[in-house]
Write a structure and sequence with these properties.
Blueprint lengths: L1 H5 L3 E5 L5 E12 L3 H12 L4 E4 L7 H5 L4 E2 L3 H4 L8 H11 L6 H20 L20 E2 L7 H13 L3 E3 L3 E7 L7 E7 L5 E12 L8 H7 L18 H8 L4 E2 L4 E7 L18 E3 L13 H9 L6 E6 L13 H6 L4 E3 L2 H8 L3 H17 L21 E13 L2 E2 L6 E3 L5 E7 L16 H19 L2
Parallel strand pairs: 2-3, 2-9, 3-6, 9-18
Antiparallel strand pairs: 1-2, 4-5, 7-8, 8-9, 10-16, 11-15, 12-13, 13-15, 14-15, 17-18
Helix pairs in contact: 2-7, 2-14, 5-6, 6-14, 12-13
Bound molecules: adenosine-5'-diphosphate.
Length: about 475
């Protein structure tokens, strides 16, 4: 009860429309209970602050929960035993070049330098990683990706929710933030948020130290995404959860925040043709599978950037491709928590004892598929892909041990690289280049880190690094 008093239940403020809004007060208010929000909440709560997380959905997790949950970080103790050479500078250069030099170099430095410590911090809070070790997720460009033991993004959400709650943070579900409160339009401090509670009541929640915006991107907002890319209309699939509507970007703009890179929308070339989601696959990585079109032919270096891969898929018949792999790389349960046997039974994954039968199942010319696989296996043996230049470290597994698997995939709206402008302290910047006091942002709601194209595995690094920075700085009230 005493604690409740601390939240300063200033009852019933008369709003201008005559409607009474309930007023609560905390030190730090976090908007959005996805990856970045929960990391920020844990950071601020562990600094001894009273923290409230506001989540509009009935569950926490956001896109982070349904993502692959894999995280890029230069981590020599795990990379060196596998003979992988890497450096912070290389991660920096690849992130910068992979986004066509449109990312903010200062923010990229913070990301790549902070990623190893973020991995350690997460391990200290109970996240465990796959014993198979480091790999290169689709579009990561280098083997520095770490896969948690728990499926999809569940591990990240679990540990940071637990850490935040253990340190005293409160989480309100079904509570939609509808606006930010700023003292004076151009120079004042952001001192809280307006929200609608689960029972439809108006709330004003004041933040003594700071507000952290962590509302994610706008991949599920058809109107907003078509404004920036007219090709991504209502029929276009997306991997995003329905809460990914860009609310935070609009709310930040309403108090003067600048945005950047809004046109840069990532399509992941790995969506299920039926659902758009990245699930429904046997999860064979790029080092142990090939991509083939409906003619039974490879058409691209599978280790390429996501935008390059998606553009290549659009050039193929029906804009669709299949991953092909053999039985040795198919687990009983995938990292998405799905059983390939179930997926085969549902007709979402195809499995056959011979390549010829597999070709018949998916309707591609059997001779062409056999020739493609034979030629690829030759590349694996020689360590050189003369057709598409797939790098030697990804030519790991020949496709030769039956049964064989085929999974249909299409490009699907995945990550919006654009969003609110921040500085290296996760402070939100206004349209004159000035810090907006009291307002911080982290994760997919921000823009300017990933440039035109985010590397696979860099989004989780982003939430873990910038979520923590935002939480710590909001706690300090900087
Ligand atoms: P990130 O990866 O940047 O953390 P996520 O998609 O994982 O982004 O999480 C964003 C979270 O913010 C989601 O759970 C989403 O439902 C929530 N959210 C989005 N808009 C609002 C809003 N207006 N009020 C409260 N929560 C919001």
């Amino acid at each position: 009860m005493r604690r409740l008093g601390l939240f300063l239940l200033i009852a019933c403020l008369v709003a201008s429309a005559g409607v009474r809004a309930q007023v609560l007060e905390y030190d730090v208010v976090v908007v959005g209970g996805g990856g970045a929000g929960l990391v920020a909440a844990a950071a601020a709560a562990e600094k001894g602050q009273q923290v409230l997380v506001l989540e509009k959905m009935a569950f926490v997790g956001g896109n982070t929960l349904v993502s692959g949950g894999v995280c890029n970080a230069v981590y020599p103790p795990w990379q060196e035993p596998l003979g992988i050479e890497d450096s912070i500078e290389f991660h920096y250069q690849q992130t910068l070049a992979g986004g066509d030099y449109r990312g903010n170099p200062d923010l990229i430095r913070v990301l790549v330098e902070g990623a190893p410590a973020a991995l350690d911090r997460s391990r200290e809070r109970g996240l465990t990683f796959h014993p198979d070790g480091v790999f290169q997720v689709l579009g990561a460009l280098w083997p520095r990706t770490h896969r948690p033991m728990e499926s999809a993004g569940t591990g990240w959400i679990r540990i940071y929710l637990e850490a935040a709650k253990k340190a005293g943070a409160h989480v309100l579900l079904n509570t939609r933030v509808i606006g930010l409160l700023r003292q004076e339009p151009l120079a004042g401090r952001v001192y809280g948020v307006k929200a609608i509670s689960s029972d439809g009541k108006q709330l004003e929640i004041h933040a003594r130290k700071g507000v952290v915006l962590a509302t994610g991107g706008f991949g599920a907002n058809v109107e907003m995404r078509t404004l920036h890319n007219p090709l991504l209309g209502p029929g276009f699939p997306t991997t995003n959860q329905p809460g990914t509507m860009g609310d935070g970007i609009t709310m930040a703009q309403d108090v003067g925040a600048d945005v950047t890179g809004m046109d840069f929308i990532q399509l992941i070339p790995a969506g299920c043709p039926k659902t758009g989601a990245v699930t429904g696959t046997v999860g064979a990585g790029i080092a142990s599978s090939i991509m083939i079109n409906k003619k039974g032919e490879r058409f691209v270096n599978e280790g390429e950037r996501r935008d390059v891969l998606s553009n290549a898929v659009f050039q193929q018949p029906d804009g669709l491709y299949y991953t092909i792999n053999d039985s040795r790389v198919v687990p009983e349960v995938t990292s998405w928590g799905e059983r390939p046997t179930d997926l085969v039974a549902e007709g979402r994954v195809f499995k056959a004892g011979t390549l010829k039968e597999l070709a018949e199942l998916i309707g591609v010319p059997a001779k062409a598929l056999a020739a493609t696989v034979a030629r690829y296996n030759e590349s694996v043996r020689s360590g050189e892909d003369r057709d598409f230049g797939k790098p030697a470290h990804l030519l790991k597994a020949a496709i030769e041990e039956p049964p064989f698997y085929a999974v249909p995939r299409v490009p699907s709206v995945h990550h919006t690289m654009g969003g609110v402008v921040i500085n290296r302290h996760a402070q939100v910047i206004d349209r004159r280049g000035q810090v907006i006091p009291g307002l911080y942002a982290a994760g997919e709601v921000t823009g300017g880190i990933h440039g035109t194209n985010r590397l696979g595995g860099n989004a989780i690094a982003d939430i873990a690094v910038f979520g923590w920075i935002a939480g710590e700085n909001a706690a300090a009230g900087n």
